[in-house]
Design brief:
Layout: H1 6-16, E1 37-39, H2 48-61, E2 64-68, H3 87-96, H4 108-132, H5 137-143, E3 150-156, E4 166-171, E5 177-182, E6 188-192, E7 195-198, E8 205-210, H6 212-217, E9 227-230, E10 237-244, E11 251-252, E12 265-266, H7 267-281
Parallel strand pairs: 1-2
Antiparallel strand pairs: 2-8, 3-10, 4-9, 5-8, 5-10, 6-7, 6-9, 11-12
Helix pairs in contact: 2-4, 3-4, 4-5
The structure holds 2-oxoglutaric acid and fe (ii) ion.
């Protein structure tokens, strides 16, 4: 049994090779990066606590990580981290990677199975992140339900002049956390060290990112990081994103023992403010509108 927390090796490497800080022009650095990788199977071993720490560290430092071996373990002799069907996920991943297959051809049951799996994974991760803050994980579980979460199927057509057009403009997500299933085309980039870092597609992993609500609820410990999608001139791209959202009446506030960075707000207020900003000034302002 590997006694080292696996992320630490990946993570140390990332920390010990600081990226070029000169490039602050907002253009892609071109180097694809390997996000922190979390092996979820460790949650079933004596290294579970290391694994949970890795998740929290990645959420705090990167706001982004990949969950690994979620897919590969199903059907094997070991128990998969989530006791649910992985059929929908495997099917989606293989279908997203076949060219000329659009969402229209994916069966409704497959989409539903995928939503059920991503929903379980999102609750599991949110629970771990809440627990690491010393907060009540049941609060998130109770507020984020099948009625309030949603899944989006994204199709990015190929674009002959991608440098002038984004598949998806730079943004942060207005939720607790997002889980992304993507094909092998690539194009997702995140802002780190003041520049855009492409996220290398990994067929065995899902990408997880922290949203604005977790950043506020954690009083700035977990980071909601700006990301965008750059279109490819040669390939269309497909992805599926699951958003862990609470009901509109949910109150987002940091722990009473802390000096709050953000004022207390409801998810309804947050959504309304985002919509208003987009309408009036053309873009989302986000959490900086809610400073204490
Ligand atoms: O398609 C992607 O890679 C990212 C999607 C995304 O950021 C979103 O839907 O909010
Ligand atoms: Fe996003």
């Amino acid at each position: 049994m590997d006694s080292n927390p696996p992320l630490m090796s990946t993570y140390k490497k990332l920390l010990s090779s600081p990226l070029d800080p000169c490039n602050d022009l907002g253009v892609s650095s071109g180097e694809e990066c390997q996000l922190p990788v979390i092996d979820l199977e460790l949650l079933n071993t004596e290294n579970a606590e290391f694994c949970k720490t890795d998740i929290a560290v990645a959420a705090a430092d990167w706001g982004f990580f990949q969950t690994f071996r979620l897919i590969a373990t199903d059907g094997a002799h070991r128990r998969p981290p989530l006791s649910t069907s992985y059929h929908g996920l495997r099917l989606i991943i293989s279908q997203l990677n076949q060219s000329h297959v659009s969402f229209k051809h994916i069966a409704r049951e497959t989409i539903e199975e995928l939503a059920a799996l991503l929903s379980k994974l999102a609750s599991l991760l949110a629970g771990i992140l809440a627990e690491r803050l010393g907060r009540n994980a049941a609060y998130l579980e109770e507020k984020c339900t099948n009625e309030t979460c949603y899944m989006r199927l994204n199709h990015y057509p190929m674009c002959p002049m991608p440098s002038n057009l984004f598949g998806l403009v730079p943004h942060t997500d207005s939720d607790f956390l997002t889980i992304l299933v993507q094909d092998q085309v690539g194009g997702l980039e995140l802002m780190k060290f003041g520049k855009w870092i492409p996220v290398k597609p990994n067929p065995d992993a899902l990408v997880v990112n922290i949203g604005d609500l977790f950043q506020a609820w954690s009083n700035g410990v977990y980071k909601s990081v700006e990301h965008r999608v750059v279109s490819s001139p040669h390939h269309e791209r497909y992805s599926v994103a699951f958003f862990l959202c609470p009901s509109y009446d949910t109150i987002i506030q940091s722990q009473e023992t802390e000096t709050p960075i953000y004022r207390r707000f409801s998810f309804r207020e947050y959504r309304q403010q985002v919509q208003e900003d987009v309408k009036l000034i053309g873009h989302k302002v986000g959490l900086s509108r809610f400073l204490a």
